[in-house]
Structures are given as C-alpha cells and as structure tokens.
Amino acid sequence: MSKKQFKAESKRLLDLMINSIYTNKEIFLREIISNASDAIDKLCYLSLTDEQVGLSRSDFRIDVSADKDARTITVKDNGIGMSMQEAENNLGVIAKSGSGAFKEEMDSTKAEDLSIIGQFGVGFYSAFMVADKVTVLTRKYGEEKGVKWESSGADGYTVSEIDRDQIGTEVIMHIKPDSDEEIYGSFLETWKLRALIKKYSDYVRWPIIMEVERSESYETGEKNDDGSPKMAYRTVKQEETINSMIPIWQRAKSEVTDDDCIAWYKEKHHDVKDPCALVRINAEGTVSYKAMLFVPGEEHGSQFYGETKGGITLYSNGVMIMENCDKLVHDYFEFVKGVVDSPDLSLNISRELLQHDRQLRIMGQNIEKRVKGELEKLMKEDRPKYEEFFRNYGVHIKCGVCDEYGRYKDFLRDLLIFYTSEDHQMTLKEYVEAMPESQKVIYYASSDSVKHALSLPQCEDVRRRGYEILCLTTPIDEMVLEALHDQDGKSFCNVVTDDLGFDTEEEKKAAEERDIENKEFLDFVKESVGDAVSKVRLSRKLASQPCCLTTEGGLTLEMEKYFRRGPSPEMRNIRATRILELNPEHKAFAALKAAFDSGDKDRAKNLSLILARLAELLAGAEIEDPAAFVSEVAELF
Ligand code: ADP
Questions:
Q1: Yes or no: is domain 248-390 CATH 3.40.50.720?
Q2: Residues 522-542: pLDDT tens digits?
C-alpha cells in the first residue's frame, strides 16, 4: 500500500503536533471526543427522517478505553462514520474550521510559538501530541465497506478498504513512549482519562462510557464460625457513564432552583461559603448564550485551588473551550466565577481573539450589566450582605473607577459605598440626596480609620453644621473621588485641604487682615517650627482643638503615607506641603501669644514646636523625632 502525502500546510501543523512541547497536551482527548459527538449528532439527525438508521437516541454512545499493554487509547463512536473519500479529505488536510484559523495565526506570526496550540480547536491532529501513530477505523452509514486510515505522522498516511460490521468510527491512538520530559503513559490510566473527560467533556450530549474496575463483595459459599455467610472481595469490570451530559445551566429555570445552582457552585469551586450573588442568563437574539455566574462569598474562597482571576469558564455547546477566561468581563469584575456557554463560540477562539470578537464583547457587556444589576439589588434588599461584598471586592470596583482615566467610572459609581460613621455606609447618590439645602459640596476626610478621620479637627465645623463626612480609609479612595470628579454636580471637598466654603467674602477678608496683623507673630512661629511646615496661619475651621495641619497643592497627607511605602527612595521622600493652622480662640494659643508678647522667646519657641507636633499627631502623621517631642513637653514642667 502506497503512502500518501499530507498537503503542505497540514504537514507543518502535524510537525508541530508531533514535536510539541506544549504543556497542555491533554486537550487531545477533548478534540477526539468532540469529533465523535459531532458524528453522532449527524447520524442522530438523519435518524429523524430515515428509519433505516435503526438507532434511537438512547443507543448513541462514545466509548473510551485504554490498553496499557498495547499502549493505545481508543475513542469509538456509533455516529455517521466516514467514506474513503471523506477520510482522505477530512483527515488528510487541515480541517476547514478550527485548524484553518490556527494556520493563519501560524503564518502571520511566523514564530513557532507553541503556546497557541491549545488555544485553537486543532482537532484531529492534536492526537499526534500524545500518539506516534493514529489508526482510524470507520464505516459510513449507508456504505457496505469500511475504511482504515493510518498515519505515523508527517511522512504521510495510508488508506485502505476493510470489512467492518459497525457503522461509526474508532480512533486508536498509539501512545508515545515515555521520555524524560513527559510520561505519556499516564494518559493510559483510567483515573487520568476519567479526569480529562470530566474536565473537558463533562457536558457532551452523548454518554461517554468507560469500563472501570470496581471491587465488590460477594458470598464465597462458605460459612463463618457463627454460621453467617463468608464474604470476600473481587474486582469486577463495569461500564460507567463518565460525563454528566446535561449541564445545569442548560436546563430550564423552572427545572433548576437557585439553590441547585448554588450547590453546584460550591461543589465545583470547593467553596464552603454561599456566593453573595447569582446571575442566570438565557440570552437569545443576535448572540445566544446561557450563563450561570456567581460572586463568591469571600474573595479567598478558592484561592487554594489557584483560581483567583478570571473565574469564568467558556463552553461551546457543552464542550469546555477556555478555563479562567479573563477577557470576557473587565478586571473590575474579575471576581465573578461561573460558566458561559454559547453555540456561537467556536473552538478556535484564542485569548487574543476574544478581546476583538464582537459577539463576545456584546456578551461581556450584557453580563456586566446583569452582574451590576444583581449587586444593586443586593444593595437595596440586603444591605449588610452588600457591605460584606464591598469589604471583599470594593477595591476591584475602586480600581475600576480609576482605570483607563475613569472610562468606567459612570458604570461603577453607584456600586461604591463610603463610611460616614463607624457603623454607617452610604452611596454617593444617597449622600447627595440627604444633603441639607445649605450644603453645597460633598465633604470627605482621609485617615487610616473611620474613627481617626472623623476626629480630625477640621471635621468639627462641618459636623457641627449637620453635614455628613465621607471617611476615606484606603489610599485609593482619594484617587477614586478625583476620577469621579463630582456626584450629581456636587464637587468633593477635602476637609483638610480645601476651603470648606463656610466663610463669606467679608469673613475671608477679615481673616486675611488678621493674618497680616499677626504677621510678626506668625513668622516667629514658622521660624521656630522650621521646615516641618511651609506656612503658619490663624484658623477659621477649628472649634475645640488648638491646632491642625492642612496641606496645600494636590498632595495630601494620606497620599504621602501611601508613597512612603513606595518602592523607590524618590517616592518615599515625597512630602505634602504642610500648613500649620492655630485656633486663635484656644487657650493654648493665648499662652503662646502671651509668651511671644512678653518677650519670652524660648518658651514661645517651645510652645510653637509642641503645637506643630500636636497638629501632626492629630493628622495621623508619625512624629519623626519622638525624643525631641518629649523634651519639648518636659520643658513645660
Ligand atoms: P473539525 O472537527 O474542526 O472540523 P478535525 O480535524 O477535528 O476538525 O476533524 C476533521 C473532520 O474529520 C471533521 O470535520 C469530520 O468531518 C471528520 N471526522 C473526524 N472525526 C470523526 C469521527 N469520529 N466521525 C466522523 N467524522 C469525523
């Protein structure tokens, strides 16, 4: 029998498969099983109109078996089969669908980048990643004779006519010998095959059957001393359907309760906690797909299993095509887990294509809208649960607001909540709605905790007027407000840095005049304090506290703290421009002023330093030289 040559491009692909160092070789089984399933689809469809087929729906099956001695894995189906011509056409050249795209990619990159192999439905050829010879025995429905197709790789293939009783196809893969890099023999293990079927082909519509060994007890016929029958164990072989066939998300909503979905999620993702949101989508129209998505109850839920990012698995008609697909939704929803199944997705999808695929984009947008809707519902109906969600995932939402110059800020802003007291959080919308008429801006204060933020001296005046203050407790919060710019036309006002807007023009003028009158005194304080602050002025914000630290320019003390943890010394040395404000109504001020006026410069200098340090402390900044501070205070005794 003469050997026939593969077409040039097929040869190149085959070469790649044969010499593949790609780590994800295991997808070969998925590809071969998918072909078997498609072949059964075809015959099953035919059987609807052609009684001669003689098979009913329940007769169709895919058998997977391994022979360790012969080192073969066989996948057998009773589908439509192939004629001689078809075997040559279909197996001898690169198939039209999946592999075509693969070839294009290979041609365009020119690089022998093997990592792309697994991203494509490379179909039948993938068998050559694990096998050094593949034999296909097949007989097409309606034909008298069968066909044997065989190839040991790139040097060509043979086809011949054979006698074959059964309709359908058997693909026999002769597994490569083990090498230092790869133990190919492990694919011959029943447990391994079973695991691969579960992983990739669990929702193939037709039963995938394996013969598995099981130990069972039986009566030996003898009796024990007490007269009971003597038992022993033996190993029996038994056929078992490995795949669960109908995916839970494909079933009608009326058939499957939300609790069923949650139970499925917990089992599949090894999570003991209930998810905090569930989204079920059955979309029909320009893009049809079904989705079952979850927001895990806790972020670390299944970190142990290495699933932190991109928890969405893509299926096409029940065949898994991509795990951890991180391109379907934006990073701000990267905590969403679950499945998306669409007949419109082809197996030849790659991560790169995913981003550009119009249908996928539509799907992703729709999914994001639904997830957001579900979260808003949770916010309305179960606030404590939403707050828990936000504790876990708020940072993703906040990063999303800041990402790409605020491109997604309007989509995400309603999901943000901020503390306004230690036991109360508000959305920005709620804040604005609750604003008294006299209030013009949204006040916020930054510190490392809600308590500290609210105890900033600058908050006193704001709170006395009955205005709420948003407490920003993480470094990213200020950037979030900056990105948002405003809420319903109300701008944000940092109680520490900005003009609180309470003073009239006259009051401002009077204050300026007061600073000018006190210039000599204020200059003295500034000089005493040194470079720690860039300016000293009399405050209009303070009530009970003697002093406070304000910053000028864009950089706040909170940002400074953030930069202090930065990677480079330049970053760590970034300092906000500090202004020391003194409360002229406070007795501490009176004491300082008295010392200055009486000419006791040493005491006045010491009191100035102490007030500067106190202002730092109130602002939550660290005192750079605690020993100096202690000496200054000790001076007072
Ligand atoms: P694809 O499935 O993407 O078309 P493949 O390389 O996997 O590409 O398969 C090539 C073709 O070979 C299939 O389209 C099908 O016509 C035929 N084929 C493969 N396996 C079988 C099978 N088990 N039964 C019938 N035809 C098959």
A1: no
A2: 999 999 999 889 999 998 878
